[in-house]
Amino acid sequence: MHHAVDAVIIAVSQPFRYEVSTYFKHREVSVHQLMKRTWDYFPEPWDRFVKELRARVIQDPEKLKLALMSMQLESYDDTFIEEMKPIFVSRMPKRSIKGQIHDDTLRRPRGITDDGLVRTVTKTRLENISFDKNGDFPMFGKESDPRTYQAIKQRYLESGRKQ
After folding, report:
1. Average pLDDT over residues 74-103
2. How many helices (H) and strands (E) does the chain have?
3. How far apart are CA 104 and CA 115, in angstroms?
């Protein structure tokens, strides 16, 4: 609902943006200056704008109609008020993750390199592991977890692929 209110204020404040800007600059003064200052109000684009906006965000349809009727605004006739409905707030549905993201490469940050760069690790399919001329392949934590490294290397070699 507050996004709707923000949108209304932005939409109507364009013609008098200087006054709105000045108003917010005055609100950012120190407490000492605030005590010396006379009270100022948000510049309204038309008479009773703030009251009308407060009425329009009422979510109960009957209370909304009563509030608008009691204001006796010239721009609202009885037919318009009777057809008035509260603002409908919609939210983006939460959806489960499906599709291409599961086929894409997954990367995780795993510390910082000696050069100060972020080290990332990539989940790689067994058939896509590239061995170097010494028969080794890059693996994060190879030194701290030699058993996993050897198990991956052994499984790769058992699959019949050449280094």
Report:
1. 77
2. 7, 2
3. 28
